[in-house]
Structures are given as C-alpha cells and as structure tokens.
Amino acid sequence: MTALTLQLRASFAFVERNFNLIKRYWAWEMVWLIYSTAESLSVSFIGLGMGAISGNGAAAPQVNTGYLVLYLLIGTLVWRFLSMIFYWITDLINIERWEGTIEYTLMAPVRRLTHMAGQTVFAVVYSLFFTGIILTVTTLVFKIDLSRANIPGGVAMILSGSISFIGIGIMASSLPLLFPERGAQMTNVFIALLMLVSGVYYPVSVLPGFLRQLAVYSPATYVLEGVRLAMLENVPTHELWGFMRPVLLIGVFLVPAGLWVFAQAERYAKRTGKLHRNG
Amino acid sequence: MDAVIVNDLYKQFGKRGETLVSRLWKRASSNGKNGNGSAQGNGARPVVIAVDHVSFSVQKGEIFGVLGPNGGGKSTLIRLISTLMLPDAGHITVLGYDVVRQPMKVQERINRVSVEASFFKKLSPMENLLYGARLYGLNAGDARRQVVEILTRLGLEKRSIYSPMEEMSRGMQQKVAIARALLSRPELLLLDEPTTGLDPRSKREVQAVVREMREQYGTTIILTTHDMNEADTLCDRIAIMNSGKIIALDTPAGLKAMVSPQDGRPPTLEDVFLELTGEKLVKPEEEEP
C-alpha cells in the first residue's frame, strides 16, 4: 500500500468522523440551522424596513429596497460560509480537547497536512450545504430575482476566498494547542475583528480611517465586494479577477504560513506537556 | 534484539515551560540582573523533574513493567516514547527509529492505551474504532470486521458496538480502548495503567489480552502500573520508578530477592518498593476500594 493511499484514508477519517459527530448531535445542528436562518432573515429585513427607519418618514423613495435586501443577504450568507469554514478548521483541536482524544489523534501516523486536508474538505462541504439551505429559505421569503445575477462568478469568488479563510483557520487552530483552557475562546477574536473591518453589512468606505486600512488586509473584504459585484451588478467573471487575485495571493501565503505556525505550536505543546491537558 | 532503547532521558516541567511573555516580564522585573534565581521564588512555577536521566532497554517480545507511585514519572515516560512529548535531554529509539527525528516511523509501529479511555463520547465503539483504524491506514471493510471480532472477544455485546460510548461503563470503555490499540497491530504497545479502576474480572480479561498479544503477534509491551500483582504476574522485567528515577530494574524474582523475607513470608514487590524508597507504593488514600 502506498504512503499516498494511507494518507488519503487518514484524511477521510476526519471527514467521516465529523459526519458521524453531526449525525449524533443532529438536534444541535437543527438549533444552529434555525438560529442562522433566523439571523440571516432578520438582517435582510432591515433592507425592507429601511424606509421606515431612515428618519425620512414612512417612505424613503431614494432607497432601492430590493437591492438593499440582496446587499445585506449577500453579506450574511458570505460571512456565514466563510466563518463556518473558519470554525470547523479551528475545531480541529477544540473538538479533540473537549473529548480528550487529542493525544490519540496526534500520535497517529498522520501528516498534519493530511489532517488539515480532511478537516478542510469537510468544512467546505458542510459550509456549502449549510449556507445552501439558508440561501434557499431566504430566497423564498424575499422572492429574490437572481435571473440577472452572475451566479457562477459569485460562486468562483467565494470559493477563491475560502482558501485564505482556510489559512486563517489553520493559524487560529494553533491557539487551543498553546492555551488549553482559553484557546477556543481566543479564536473568536480573529473572526470578530475580520467581521468588523471587512464590510459584511456595509461598504468599508464608511469605516474610520484606521479600520479602513485594516480592511485592505482582510480577504473577506475582496470576497464580499466581488460577490456583490457579480450578484448585484452582473459583472462578468473575468472582471472579478481583480478581487480574486488578492484573495488567492493571501491564501497562497496564509495556508503554508498557517501550517508552519501550527507545527511550531504543536512542538511547543509537546515540549511543555500541554498536549494532554483538556480545556 | 532491543525494541526500545532509552538513553539518559531527562524531562522537566515548570521553568522551561514558562510562556515567552512571563519570561520577558520576569526579565524586565529583575532589572537586568543575571541569574535565574530560585525556581520556587518570585512567582515562578516550581520545576518538576518528571524523568531524571533514565536509561533502560526493552527486548522484542518482552513485557516490560514500570512500577511506581502516582507522580513518579511513569506516564511522562510513556508519552515521551509515544512521541507525545519531546525530551529535554537524552534519546529514545523505538524499533531502530529515533522518536524525535523520525516520529512518523515510530507512530506507524506503536499504539497506546492510557488510564483514561478517551473517545468521542456520542459516537459508538464502531464509529470511534473505524476512525482510529483509518488513521492507521486500514480499509473500512477489514476494520469493521475486526472491530466486531475483537470487541466480541473482549466480551462486548453486539448491540453495544453500535450504541454511544457514553452509555457504557468504564470497564467496557477501557476494553474498547484496548481494541483500538489492537486494531493497528502495533509492534510496540504502550499500556499506561490500563486496568486502573477496573473490576477484578475486567482486569483479568485485559491481562489475558495482553498475554495473547505477546504470544500471538510477538508484540513488545511496556506496561506502567501501581498494581504489584499485575506487574508480578504479567511482566518479564520490572523497572521501579520513583521521583523520575529508576531505582531498581530486574525480573520480579530478582527484585524480590533484594529484600529478606518479611515476618516469615516471602517478600512482595510492595516490600521491595518500601525497602528501596522508605515509602508505600500505594498510599492509603489512593487505594482502590
């Protein structure tokens, strides 16, 4: 049996294990799905209510509510997809710390790249499925007309962006290795800061200067802008290259950098005996 | 031929385990003075020497016991051999491979059962073991067959194999942990107090599996325990470990020959430990009911 076959089997172990976990925790999955759908709907309803809450009386004719609803909906769905990938990858260590299985997984003859690949494949498939359900529900509720949207372009944009979120996730997943008790909470700081500066529900131009400067470094900024151009303005895919290129470059840098950071964290945990402590 | 060679192994926790921030803080607050000071002083974590310049070798097919009290360094030694910790000094070779420089080669050949049967509690034994089997490159069909075969041999009912682990007793969970280790057919099996907390019957069943592993597959086994009888009946040789040091290493009979008969009865390993350290191996509060 080749080393590649062994590593492929090992990689699938993480996909299958996570699938079994969500199957066993199905009630929590349902709760999370309902919560996420309700949140996406709530944010998008702000678009419909803009006339009433703008301070200009009952109607604000200058507001294109259909456009605004889709703008907000894209923000909430893209963010849901990217943050879900991030959380599943950071759960690489969180889950194992929680269950106390971390030593068994880390002493198995599995390359960390294989480990990450399995978790990433699951993260992307799960996030696509989960976000797909929310998209279906919200499209039905708001009767959104996507006939003039460049859907393939939007999908290509979001998939390009997911690579850099994989890198950020791998980097953040080293926190629970370094800090057994608080590492899991620390990963939330990453995602909260990215949400603030990336223009999830507003254009980054409304941000104060220093936050606007940080937005340049967030891959989500380019993903959101690119997806909005594709879906709202029907911009052709080749014209989205200007947004895909930076996120791909950030991804190409962040994935190996994340693996390197993780390897250092694993080495530190093995040196200081932090591996066997459960958070 | 030696399966495991441990040479001058040293591992300590505390000072070297400090965070970069706390080290910088201490350096700043010591105002540039030289000297690391007392490890116990100025808020520093005390240094704990877990493994103190330990050397020994284990032959292929041997059942090698490490006997010692809680906190004596047994589990740290197992973690160092199983690539889960890095030594501060010294070397460990497993089946010819260095655990620090060739961890993957070592990992392919070993498995471990620890005192805590750690599993994904909502998953069934089948799901947990299938996950473990895939990590070691086994194909799913073979693994499924072997899981059923091993677990039924260990006395698990078939329906338990598909029920969540959280519904099982600790003894049953420990049997599943042993099955997980057996699935990968390791050349070296590290058993870290595998029978602690088990009822006498489960203990005997686990011990029978350990013997069978050696007899059928020639597996080398390192077993840590503070159960004297277990060490006496299972092990070919026993190292007695206390405060991170190996204070005696011999066959059970050889160790017992170190002390004279006690009140007319032949000496036990407990007597040996008492003679060598002046302490009881299992303190009254640690004794199992």
Radius of gyration of chain B: 21 Å
CATH architecture of chain B: 3-Layer(aba) Sandwich
Based on DSSP secondary structure assignment, what is the total number of beta strands of chain A? Answer: 0
Q: Given the helix and strand composition of chain B, which structural class is it?
A: alpha/beta
What is the CATH C level class of chain B, in words?
Alpha Beta
Number of domains as seen in the coordinates of chain A: 1
How far the N terminus sits from the C terminus of chain A, by CA atoms, comes to 37 Å
Cα end-to-end separation of chain B:
41 Å
Spatial strand order of the main sheet of chain B: 6-7-8-3-9-10
Largest interface: which pair?
A-B, 33 and 35 residues
Number of contiguous helices of chain B: 10
Q: What count of domains describes the coordinates of chain B? A: 1
Q: In the CATH hierarchy, what is the superfamily of chain B? A: P-loop containing nucleotide triphosphate hydrolases
Helix content of chain A: over 70%
Question: How many helices of chain A?
Answer: 12
Measured by DSSP, the beta-strand proportion of chain A falls in under 5%
Quote the CATH topology of chain B. Rossmann fold
Average pLDDT level of chain A:
90
Describe the main β-sheet of chain B briefly: 6 strands, mixed
Poorly predicted segments of chain B: 32-42
Oligomer: heterodimer
Family (chain A): Belongs to the ABC-2 integral membrane protein family.
Keywords (chain A): Cell membrane, Membrane, Transmembrane, Transmembrane helix, Transport
Transmembrane segments (chain A): 32-53, 65-89, 121-142, 154-179, 186-204, 243-263
Protein name (chain A): Transport permease protein
